[in-house]
Amino acid sequence: MTERTDGPGGVPGLSARTADGGGLAVEAVPHPAGPVALHVRGEIDAATAGFLADQVDAWCAAAPRIVLDLSAVRFLGSAGVAALLACRRSAVDAGVELELFCGVSRAVRRVLQVTGTLEHLAVIDPHPPGAPGDPPPVYPVPD
Fold first, then answer.
1. Is the pTM of this model over 0.85?
2. φ and ψ at 23, to 5 degrees?
3. 8, 64, 108, 113: least buried by Cβ within 10 Å?
4. Which tens digits make up the pLDDT trace of 82-119?
5. How far apart are the C-alpha atoms of 129 and 65, rounded to whole Å?
6. pLDDT exceeds cutoff 50 at 126
7. SUPFAM superfamilies under this entry (predicted)?
8. Quick one: angle between helices 78-94 and 106-114, nearest 10?
């Protein structure tokens, strides 16, 4: 089910909810210069991956650059990885620059690293942010 919600500044956003209470919310925040930030919140799985791909496809026709903010994503399944790769193909076909922002979301970054998908997507922050003075990891994950 898709329901229309109002985002910040009256910018409409869309939400998709699954029957089991999980779900995905995508909030679009267009910039006056043309780019759009799509803030994604929730779980990207088989039930919601198509919704995410549809939202990115719709914005590919309207914006020269899309930043997909995945920092609030709690789960990224294989269908979500496939959807992100499909979004990349759609953006390339439309001549749109698609960038991903993972933030502190280990749920997203780790899946992209382990599956080798990270190297196929334009990720703004390929390395997780660390607190000042944090020691280096004992077993770092290679890029």
1. no
2. 150, -175
3. 8
4. 999 999 999 999 999 999 999 888 889 999 999 999 88
5. 24
6. yes
7. SpoIIaa-like
8. 80
